[in-house]
Every structure is written in C-alpha cells, then in structure tokens.
TrEMBL record:
UniProt xrefs under SUPFAM superfamilies: NAD(P)-binding Rossmann-fold domains
Coiled coil, from the record: none
PANTHER family for the chain: GROES-LIKE ZINC-BINDING ALCOHOL DEHYDROGENASE FAMILY PROTEIN, NAD-DEPENDENT ALCOHOL DEHYDROGENASE
Name of the molecule in the record: Alcohol dehydrogenase-like C-terminal domain-containing protein
Highest taxon listed in the record's lineage: Eukaryota
Length: 128
C-alpha cells in the first residue's frame, strides 16, 4: 500500500461489490485493469464512480471480447483508456518516473526479488 492505494480488494471474491461497500456505493476515482481479461475489464468499468476513469494497461489476447454497459459508460461520463500501446507508454512513462524519482512513491517494496539473467526461467515460474 506504499504506492498510493488505500485499500486492497481480493478479486477472487465479488470485487465490484467490495469496492462499492468500501466507497459508500460511489465507486473509485480510477480503476486500473492490468490482466487484459474480459472479466477484469468488466470489473474495472463497474468499479469506477460516475465520471471516474477505467484504465486498461493489460494487453488482451487476440479475439478477447469484453462486455460493457454502454449507458453506464456514456450517461455517467465514465472514461475508458487503453494504455497498453507502446507509444502511449513512451508519452506517459516520464509522468510515472518523475514522482518515483522525487520520492513521492516509496518503491522499496515494489521489487520483491532480483534474478540474474541466466535465472530468468525461475523468475517467470515464480510469477505464475
């Protein structure tokens, strides 16, 4: 919780319901979807408050189809952004790095382990 989050939600349970409970029914200002899966895409869009922002950074598999409530998206002025494109990352990366360099975010806990290049397989296995 050192990177700005105020709460943690277990997505294996009803994440949207838990988020709504935690925010008094309002939803969050910004929800970030990082897996690129239809289920988490829908959870992300349903978790934001009216006028909130759903940001997709997870690249989805070709042919993946996600559902969205179009009325919720447009009438409530929710904004969905796709941040998985490399060009966007080039534009946005400096905006992320600058606060990290200034110490606003405590990144000490962001790296749980380090591996030598020849141990890349161990790193991948551990992340799954």
């Amino acid at each position: 919780m050192t990177l700005g989050a105020t709460h943690i939600v277990n997505a294996a349970k009803d994440a949207v319901e838990r988020i709504r409970e935690t925010t008094g029914g309002m939803g969050v200002d910004v929800a970030v979807e990082a897996l690129g899966k239809p289920q988490t895409f829908m959870q992300c869009t349903l978790s934001v408050r009216d006028g909130g922002k759903a940001v997709m950074i997870g690249p989805s598999q070709a042919g993946s189809v996600g559902e969205i409530d179009i009325n919720r998206l447009f009438r409530r002025k929710n904004l969905c952004e796709d941040k998985s494109d490399r060009v966007i990352w080039r534009q946005d990366l400096p905006k992320v790095v600058k606060p990290a360099e200034s110490g606003i975010f405590n990144l000490a806990n962001a790296v749980s382990s380090r591996y030598k290049f020849e141990d890349a397989g161990k790193s991948i296995s551990r992340s799954q």
